[in-house]
C-alpha cells in the first residue's frame, strides 16, 4: 500500500508528518484527511471560539494531492448586544 | 513448548488475581489441551458460531472484535498468554463477537466438558473463572470511558499503560520494555480512532519522550508522565499485591 503524509496546520502551528500512513489509494487518503480534520476539531473545540485547522495530503512522490480547511468563529451573543435593544433598555 | 508449560501460564494468570491452593493448581494443570498453531489475523471463533471448547491463549496476541456495517472493525479486548477469552462460552454457547489472532499464535483448545467437570468439582476454580470474567467487565468499563470520554492522546497512553501492566503481571515484561506486536491500524481499531489520527497523536506522545516505540517494542521512558496523560490507575485490573506492579521512579 502506498504511503501518504498528512501535514497539519493549527492556527500558525505547522506539523510535518514525516512517517506517513499506508492507505490503499488517493480516495482513502482524501477521506482520511477529512476524518482527521473532524477529529482534531472535536479535540480543539472546548478551548476557544476561534479555530483554523488545515490538512495537506502528500503522496509518496511528494506531490500534494489534497488540501482541506476547517474554520470556526464563535462569539457569545451577550457581549454583542443588538444596538436597537440597548437603546430601548436605556430609555 | 509443552502443554504443561501453557497450563502453567493459565495458573499464573489466574494467580495474578487470587492465589490458588496447590490442589486446585494441580487440577488446572491436568486439563486436556489440544494445541493449534495459527497465523496472524486468523479467526478462532466467529460471531454466531456455537462452540464446545474454550480457547487458552498459549502464545501470541488474540483479540475480540466486531465488524460494523461499513466494514470498520472495533477491537473489543486484547488477550495475552494465559487468558481464556471465551470462557463465557461455557454458559453462553453462541458467540456474539469474533475471536481472532492479531499475531501468529498458539492456542490450546479445552473441551467444555472438561472445564465444566472441573468447575463443578472445585468451587475455588469456579470462582477463579468467575472472577476473571468480572475483571474483564471492569476492563470493558475502563475502555468504554476511554472511547466515550478520553481525548485521543489519553486514550493511546491508557492502552500502552494497560498493556505493559498486564504483560508485567504475567512475567512477560520488566515494566520498562515490552513486546508490543500491534500495528498502528490495530491500535486505532482498539481505540475507535482513525489510523491517521492515531499516528499523529502517537507521534506527539513519542515526541514528549514518554515512550519509545520501535519495531514492535515499547519502551517506557517516563512512566509517571505516561500514567498522568492516561489518567491511568491500575486498580480496575484488580491485580494481587504480589503480582508485579510497575513502580513509580
Automatic annotation (TrEMBL), chain A:
Pfam assignment, any one: DUF6894
- In its UniProt entry, the species of origin is given as Bosea robiniae
Q: Which InterPro entries match?
A: DUF6894
Name of this protein: DUF6894 domain-containing protein
Q: Domain DUF6894, which positions?
A: 4-70
Automatic annotation (TrEMBL), chain B:
Could you tell me which InterPro entries the record lists for this protein? cNMP-bd_dom, cNMP-bd_dom_sf, HTH_CRP, RmlC-like_jellyroll, WH-like_DNA-bd_sf, WH_DNA-bd_sf
Residue span(s) of domain HTH crp-type: 150-224
* Listed PROSITE patterns: HTH_CRP_2
- Give the keywords, sorted: DNA-binding, Transcription, Transcription regulation
Pfam families per record: cNMP_binding, HTH_Crp_2
Say if the entry is tagged with keyword Lipid metabolism.
no
Q: In its UniProt entry, what is this protein called?
A: cAMP-binding domain of CRP or a regulatory subunit of cAMP-dependent protein kinases
> Taxonomically, what lineage is the organism?
Bacteria, Pseudomonadati, Pseudomonadota, Alphaproteobacteria, Hyphomicrobiales
